Structures
1.
Amino acid sequence: MENVTIRMLAERLQLSTATISKALNNSHEISEETRQRVLALAAELNYVPNPYASSLRKKASNTIAVVIPEVADSFFAEAINGIEAVAQEKGYHVLIYLSHENCQKEQTILKDFQSGRVDGVLISVTTETTATGLEQLVRDKPVVFFDRVCEEVKAAKITTDDAAAAYRATTHLIAGGCRRIGLLSASRQLSISNKRAEGFQQALLDHQLPLLPNAITYCTNDSAANHQLLKTAFLENDYDGIIATTEKLSTAVYEVCEALQWRIPEDLQVIGFSNLSTARFLHPSLTTITQPAFEMGKAAATLLFRALKSNNFPLQQQQEVIPSSLIARNSTLAKDK
Amino acid sequence: MENVTIRMLAERLQLSTATISKALNNSHEISEETRQRVLALAAELNYVPNPYASSLRKKASNTIAVVIPEVADSFFAEAINGIEAVAQEKGYHVLIYLSHENCQKEQTILKDFQSGRVDGVLISVTTETTATGLEQLVRDKPVVFFDRVCEEVKAAKITTDDAAAAYRATTHLIAGGCRRIGLLSASRQLSISNKRAEGFQQALLDHQLPLLPNAITYCTNDSAANHQLLKTAFLENDYDGIIATTEKLSTAVYEVCEALQWRIPEDLQVIGFSNLSTARFLHPSLTTITQPAFEMGKAAATLLFRALKSNNFPLQQQQEVIPSSLIARNSTLAKDK
DNA sequence: CTGAAAGCGCTAACAC
DNA sequence: GTGTTAGCGCTTTCAG
């Protein structure tokens, strides 16, 4: 059976394609009676509209893009959930693009968006991203950054309280008796990484603790390389507390401690930014800064759809900070928050 | 700046749109010289083709759909990674749909595929799915099932060695001294669940162990309900070993054991189907059946693209079973494999 | 090697 | 209320 088109419906009902189109789109200029006839026949013939014909004509695709570095990270997985929930409700489709922490790939992806393939974009940038390409994208169409935002670009942003979270994490370690605290950062560029570093430094300052010369270790995307990097850093700096600012780095700390036979929390107290549902079952259970991943995805999508619905919504000025929470467990000694 | 179209290029170069189109598509009927001129101007004006116009005309979208129950599960997250890697390489786009374990939602999603929005579909069905709708889909366009396949439908399938894995898991528990083994199943319908159950039963049989009347607990998608269900099952059946056939159920077992103050592995040995990278750091470290998630996604996508490339590829007959592996850790007592 | 023309399926003006 | 017409931007015969 070949595809049923609006034209076939028109012929069968002795109506024009325009009428059919309007009837199917619940236009108010169509009488209830013909509307019903059209709908009935459409159902009978199992008519399914061709989205591309419609998109071409309307210059709107009912599709949004989600661009993230990777998906195998609880944060992004949950964020996608939040995004998809909203999109499904609004009848939008979700195209997913993984940049694999590769700025080049990200550029290629962004370039494609100039085609009109998507009506809007939700993006969390790579660790290497600069403003290049993003400025243009934001000018072209509705964009909402979430979590890993690009500071330089004026655009809608959903973030969590990065600096405050790191401040709290640091304070928590200090309360647990740590004096030589290290921070593992995912990037020198990423504003959220820098904010976390700032919160960390401020906390040290406020508690009259010196910033160790090698307090901050900048990690890469290569887990084997990171392992080596951390091992060296741990041995050289003799940390008594560490803050891992990503989920992967949190796991890496456990691996390295195992390799070095350092006990957590006796030899090293650990706090990690992580959304792992199993954090409480780790050995020892991991004290976490848990980000509101699902909510952030949902908030970002909601914002995007508001902009998609009304043109005069000042999207670029929207900024939302959703607080994270510190959950104290056994990888740190301070029991309060 | 309004969108650059093929027509604008044509006017500027005093050529026809047909020539431009051919030049851009590297048609061999175009002279190298004009091809270069066209490409140069396209680059200069930053021409980006409209994918929907092209799709409408060609009746092909260069887009595939991935339909999965959820994304917050390491298995699916890794599978997406595998899929996306292949798709990106082939220049395809990936639409993602979450069925949220809801058969109704899944139906709605499948229905949309009749529109020609996607050229092919990769799907892992919900725990409730029946053949309804799937038969039609498979008739309509290339489809590859992965992991959670639908037995009744004749179609390409990528699975892991479910029965064998469960058999091995059971044998492993028996080797560790378990005599009252329970299995936590995600579904009564799902063929992979049933195969796991079969492998389990066969192993008991082969080792002359009786199948407890309540050996198999069928869980739901509601984690609170599951928690209660497991608690009751654990107390009533006094298991000494348990096989959790999904990642979520594995975590649930840890939760319930904590609540009941049962020690793992002394009171209950646990083995879980899980791809969690942190399995080795759980307390106690979790013995797992680890599925080749990334490979399965990759294999499924590769198969789909083969079908998309050549029409006479007998896609529906393709079946691939990728073995899983048992990784013995401290939640079970047997140390061999 | 290049171009003219026809249309993919749908929608939006504008008539009637 | 319904129909006519003219495309959206691209690809594909088929002529030349």
2.
Amino acid sequence: MHKLYLMTRSEENYIKTIFHLGRKGTQEVATNAIAELMETKPSSVTDMIKKLSEKNLVNYKRYQGVSLTSLGTKTALGIIRKHRLWEVFLVEKLDFSWDEVHEVAEQLEHIKSDKLIDSLDRLLAFPKFDPHGDPIPDKNGGFKERDRDLLSEVPINTVGVCVGVKDSSATFLKFLDKNGIALGNQIRVKEREEFDGSLNIEIDGRNLQISHVIAANLYIKTNDEI
Amino acid sequence: MHKLYLMTRSEENYIKTIFHLGRKGTQEVATNAIAELMETKPSSVTDMIKKLSEKNLVNYKRYQGVSLTSLGTKTALGIIRKHRLWEVFLVEKLDFSWDEVHEVAEQLEHIKSDKLIDSLDRLLAFPKFDPHGDPIPDKNGGFKERDRDLLSEVPINTVGVCVGVKDSSATFLKFLDKNGIALGNQIRVKEREEFDGSLNIEIDGRNLQISHVIAANLYIKTNDEI
DNA sequence: ACAAATTTTTAGATTTGCCTAAAATTTAAT
DNA sequence: ATTAAATTTTAGGCAAATCTAAAAATTTGT
Ligand SMILES: [Mn+2]
Ligand SMILES: [Mn+2]
Ligand SMILES: [Mn+2]
Ligand SMILES: [Mn+2]
């Protein structure tokens, strides 16, 4: 049953938004939240939700919020897979920087062709994570969230590798570039300033002072796996 | 003046169709011809032509047909450049066959990003022709039509290289595959049957009998350049 | 508990791209 | 030169996706 292939771009964007807002679609999402993230009006969201509900992509009872059905979740994962594979492609093959890829991937994620996306996957050697450290669902929607922690929440002296960003806005990513912070960097948390939560870290040898806001948007994978 | 970037997919498809029907937009194109090629109704075409005329993309006087303005031509060349570069990408990097690329390229040609297309161009080493032998406009719309002849129209004993197809439908392309005819093949016209216009050719060593219809859809570049 | 504030839905418009049916214009045929 | 045929445009409508304004339902605060 592949209705997936006759979805409009707009429908796909709503499904994706509901997925992201509702912890992978499991949680109920508020109409207003969707409207805000999509920069549209709540009344438009209600209209679309009804349509998606007709198509069995979301569970909906008026005034009760919306969540994805299993078909909706599958659809969302397909779009996210495409988005993230294209992001990898742009960085690996076309030398885009990680702050430039999202906008273009927003367009490319709507291209319909299974063969295209599976070939792309192969060309890129089946990457597991996108340039921002987010996991790439496989062909069947399989998804393994990497075990990771926010830099702002690990204890002093934790050592690990920077594996992702929480905020992946161009502004934040460019800031990281400017300060020489990139995925793969070795990080050690040396000191936490109680007053403002800022951190003194050692990153690939250098010392660096970063604010709490920055630390709260950087993921590390610690070495203390058992 | 880059209105180009706020064109809808539908507008782009009309512009492209007018370009193809009107010998690169120079000739006047009939409403019905556009409608037929785009599988839409003449009344819809008239509506769109008015809109494109407003935007200075076409020259239009009612009942007199339509042609591209210089802005329209530039736009068309940009879309065709994208279409053909994506076709090369699909064949060269993703192992698509030449009969599979067109459909996907029809989608990809509407992705908006100068950086994307110029990087793609570089990745592919600035190809001059697409998988069907059609020329790829450069960044500035520069376009050199290759000197070539239809196999059906060259004299007996002409020798050349197969450099393109006129009909690039999947059906025809698959037929060529089945008969081992591909771009780059060395061809010599050995005999022309007066009765039905069929040809006896030598192609990369082998002998092959091809109907007039086939010959009339294959381009060769002869070796008799001065 | 119940009024006030917030959220969500409905009702009614708008825009884009398409349609059908009918009218206007051009082209072809006698 | 008229008439007939074909082409093209207009008029009026429809579906998708959006909006504003108003009504309905839920949540919050005292
Ligand atoms: Mn992204
Ligand atoms: Mn990403
Ligand atoms: Mn093509
Ligand atoms: Mn082509």
3.
Amino acid sequence: MAGRVRIQDVAAAAGVSVATVSNALNRPERVNAGTAARIQRIARELDYVPHHGAVDLRHGRRSAIALVIPDVTNSFYARITRGAADAAYGHGFSLVLCDSNDDAERERDFFTMLADQRAAGAVVVPRGADRQRLDGLRRRGIPLVLTDRAVPVQEGCSVAVDDVAGGRLAVEHLLAGGARRILVVNGDRAIRQCADRWQGARQAVREHRGAAVRQVSVPQMDVACGAAAVRELAELPDAVFCTNDFLAVGVVQALLARGVRVPGDITVAGFGDLDVATVSAVPLTTVRQPVEELGRAGVGLLLDEVEAVDDHTHEARQFPPRLVVRESAPRQEVLV
Amino acid sequence: MAGRVRIQDVAAAAGVSVATVSNALNRPERVNAGTAARIQRIARELDYVPHHGAVDLRHGRRSAIALVIPDVTNSFYARITRGAADAAYGHGFSLVLCDSNDDAERERDFFTMLADQRAAGAVVVPRGADRQRLDGLRRRGIPLVLTDRAVPVQEGCSVAVDDVAGGRLAVEHLLAGGARRILVVNGDRAIRQCADRWQGARQAVREHRGAAVRQVSVPQMDVACGAAAVRELAELPDAVFCTNDFLAVGVVQALLARGVRVPGDITVAGFGDLDVATVSAVPLTTVRQPVEELGRAGVGLLLDEVEAVDDHTHEARQFPPRLVVRESAPRQEVLV
DNA sequence: CAGTGCGTCTTAAACGTTTTAGAAAGCCGT
DNA sequence: ACGGCTTTCTAAAACGTTTAAGACGCACTG
């Protein structure tokens, strides 16, 4: 009684042709009601499940989509993955995960895997993907949705978080708390996200008379670098905006170590709302990005393009982040 | 020049039959060297990539495996995923990610997706999966490797971390540091991992004359509960072993808040080596589990069963954790 | 009673491959 | 000149489905 049961087995058991079985299961109205019921019963009894690959092949359709990311272990990508998985499940697609392990060559391999029609399309958070390769896939009829990278909208859909708004949000909050001299602890400004968050910070400051901002850039966005950035700072600001929560945790630790009270003397805001934000000695006020939403929307746009290939118009969707207020920079109750 | 190029197109362009193209690409020795070269060149020029689904169908083979997990967002599962992805890539398989979002019904859906031959097998970290359903899949010829759950080895392969050894490791370290009265802050003892880690702790203590251990159980394994567990403790121990890093972070915070020095007065060890371990006010000494290895080995065993279906013997593989010494419980330099 | 139409089922083609069996052609030795 | 062998290619079946087209019987109509 073992082994896979094919549509043929059902047909044999019911004493009809395979076509009739197929019809009974997919379009019962074309089959005598009694027969249809009988076939359905038999199929259920035999525990028949259609071979999905064959169905797809027949239909010239593909019911899997791919998600290409640099590293699931990074919670940002994990959250994208989670959102994408949700959406894929919701649409009845299966999701093949392509984790490039931050390796450009592996990423390339995944792209040729896409070309072999395994997937109907892909949501990609690019690592090294060059435009040429992406175009190659598109020409093959494999839609791509890019994430977290600026893309000319005529080339395809994209989704991203509005990092400028995020930086602005954080700094506006610090200013509203009474801070005037703001320090921004940033990562490599060549990274778009870093540049954008800094730009948002500047916008906020520019609109606030009497406020001043300055920036210090560190090589790695981790706790140690955050701590280093303020450990030997000659002149302390009123508030610090870190473009990443790890940096913020380091900053808070270093400030406390210097005997500076947070938020008493200096307020601190982070970015990302990572796990560490709540675990920090002083729970971090930070900017929460709708990352799951990024994944979900990416898959949504992709499937829209896949299914409504006729009248699909590309779209560059941007999501607003929101502020999560915790202790490191509390809601202002400062009555001046 | 757009659209998918099929093997037929290559055949037409080369003026040969599709069979010859297939041979030229897959078994060139059966084809005249010159022709083979010409066909390969043409295939390359046309950018031909075989339709993987069709190939699989023809071969009665499947080149995808599934990974069923409760939630990628949880770093434990993310690390399993990463290991599984690595191994799948290494073997030329694609990995379809089934994130059940901690939902038993969704998990069931994924299992019927498996039955439809989309995947050659699955590595599953079960949430609610009952034995009956798993057996159903196995009877269909879909091999399953279970993770992180004790399974009778005759039913299939499994991989797990040796949690008993982990608990033992941590507590032995605390004892070696000079501690005698050990407190274990544990989660729900109905959870296998919690029970095992506690058992390991007890073993270590039992083998150490003069040592005593006691346990307190908290409802959630998070920072708040960890803090609560020691905040109002009447009698402080020499050392605390927390069966999870979040608990440990909470414990450290609460101890520091009480004016207890860590590791000066009390040493603390955690479990998991999560991100938070390094970020904690006092970097945590903790037990690192080879989680990626779990995923990698899971896929390895699965593919062994898939490919060498003849002489595969089931295996329950267990991985030893190792201790990561940081500041909360430093290497003993205590010269008694 | 021939013709028409309907309801029900089946035959066969198709999806894009691989592979088996065999055909065509060239060469060899007798 | 012929049978047999080798080399090189092709036709066709197969994988498990779906579906367009057609066959068969039956009731109805004129």
